[in-house]
From TrEMBL:
Keywords: DNA-binding. PANTHER family: OS03G0429900 PROTEIN. Residues 101-203 form the Replication protein A 70 kDa DNA-binding subunit B/D first OB fold domain. GO terms for molecular function: DNA binding. This is Replication protein A OB domain-containing protein. Pfam families: DUF223, REPA_OB_2. The keyword Repeat does not apply. Residues 231-303 form the Replication protein A OB domain. The keyword DNA-binding applies. CDD domains: RPA1_DBD_A_like (cd04480), RPA1_DBD_B_like (cd04481).
Length: 448
């Protein structure tokens, strides 16, 4: 059975416009002499060749394919070959030559941008509480020039795009929009942000560029932290040596919610220290035991990104890890970590352990008294007793029995203005007179 000639290289040789292909064709001619070629001219005037020869031509052509049908006829020599083969080749070249826009040149109002970026960070934004539904997925991306930009995936596109997003992955992004950056809680510097949508196309890049940075941060010296307490324009990034840390411990918050907490102490090159507080999933994700073991033989240098400066009742400023918080520990390819490590010398000190009281221990320490017992306490004789002057009232209620509030009228119990943060959310506090306390059920108690 014979086949139509499909090898377009012969066409190019006929018009004599490719010296490199001539060499291949000459080799093909020498090979043809060893093949018993029996070809003839069909009634349509087309030359046919044996299948063995056709197969040789195809295998010797580096861009060979079997796409479509052999419908293309050369106007110079009447050779027939697969036109889609050429389309495949040209499409690949066009993709390689497609304009890739650097992040620094992105502007609002243009929707034809194509960018190639590395996903440096990903986090889920739930709102004030991690138990709330995801409002959007947040990203920090970096391009080949080292420019970093914040990107956001809305909730209706998360299910479509999240499977393709992974920290460290390099992607080509199309069908994106550019907007003005948000006024607060910005993870990177810049005037614009990327908005992805459910029509955004994310494609893997092969081969991956080797020179796209993995990390981005803007380090803030410890001495500048106090003046950033109420500044929420940017997240805070810091670097320091870990000197102490705690285990992830369940802690009861002011709202009565039990969450995991971990404390980490950092020291800069000048000996200044700052405390980093991680809550919830961030406390669990931090590999405390591995860090502690590493400190027995080496300094542990860490960069924390995505934190905020806080103070509590006039305390020293500390950092709290947000949902955007990440940490990079003893990564030699980060020049800032390498320089910090070199500056502090070779002798290392093991990390100290910080002990936190967990929620159960705190609950067991609560002192309970009846109101009659409270009445008998002389505050002048118990100055060292840690009893708050205003306390929430707790009733021990038996089955099918109403609390003894009938001893007090609404006029006798007046709402009190107190520091609500000291007590669980939802507690009601009232001021009563000494006479009313004396008639309360003796099972009534308070929690100090």
């Amino acid at each position: 059975m014979s086949y139509l000639l499909t090898y377009r290289l012969i066409c190019r040789q006929e018009v004599g416009n490719n010296i490199g292909k001539k060499t291949i064709r000459k080799e093909g001619i020498r090979r043809k002499k060893r093949i018993n070629v029996d070809y003839s001219t069909s009634s349509e005037g087309m030359v046919t060749f044996p299948s063995e020869y056709i197969q040789y031509l195809k295998e010797s052509y580096l861009e060979k394919s079997y796409l479509g049908k052999p419908e293309y006829k050369c106007k110079h020599c009447n050779a027939i070959f697969w036109f889609n083969e050429r389309n495949k080749c040209m499409t690949g070249r066009n993709n390689q030559q497609m304009d890739i826009t650097p992040l620094s040149q992105l502007r609002p109002g243009i929707y034809s941008y194509v960018i190639i970026v590395r996903v440096s960070r990903i986090w889920k934004f739930h709102g004030r509480n991690d138990d709330e539904p995801i409002k959007h997925l947040d990203l920090v991306v970096i391009d080949q020039q080292g420019t970093a930009m914040y990107a956001e995936v809305p909730d209706d596109a998360i299910s479509v795009l999240q499977p393709h997003l992974k920290e460290g992955k390099i992607l080509k992004m199309r069908k994106i929009s550019i907007g003005r950056v948000k006024p607060s809680f910005k993870p990177v510097r810049g005037l614009h942000m990327i908005r992805l949508n459910d029509k955004t196309i994310l494609e893997d890049v092969h081969p991956e560029p080797k020179d796209i940075p993995k990390y981005t941060f803007f380090l803030t010296p410890f001495m500048q932290l106090p003046q950033l307490e109420r500044n929420t324009e940017y997240f805070i990034d810091v670097i320091g040596r870990i000197t102490a840390l705690s285990d992830a411990t369940p802690i009861s918050t002011n709202a009565g919610i039990v969450r995991m907490k971990r404390l980490i102490h950092l020291m800069d090159l000048s000996g200044n220290t700052v405390e980093v507080s991680l809550w919830g999933s961030r406390a669990d994700e931090f590999s405390g035991q591995q860090v502690y073991e590493a400190s027995k033989t080496n300094h542990v240098i860490a960069i924390f990104v995505g934190t905020l400066v806080k103070t509590l009742n006039g305390s020293r400023p500390f950092l709290i890890g947000t949902a955007a918080c990440r940490w990079y520990i003893n990564i030699p390819e980060i020049l800032e970590i390498k320089a910090f490590y070199t500056s502090i010398g070779q002798e290392s000190q093991p990390i100290q352990k910080i002990s936190l009281e967990n929620a159960n221990e705190v609950h067991n320490m609560i002192e309970k008294k009846t109101l009659l017992e409270l009445r008998s306490i002389d505050p002048f004789d118990n100055l060292t007793t840690n009893l708050p002057p205003l306390v929430p009232i707790q009733f021990n209620i038996k089955d099918n029995q109403a609390p003894p509030t009938h001893h007090m009228s609404s006029l006798d119990m007046q709402p009190m203005e107190i520091d609500q943060s000291r007590y669980p959310e939802g507690f009601q506090h009232y001021r009563t007179t000494k006479e009313h306390i004396s008639v309360l059920d003796q099972s009534t108690s308070f929690v100090s």
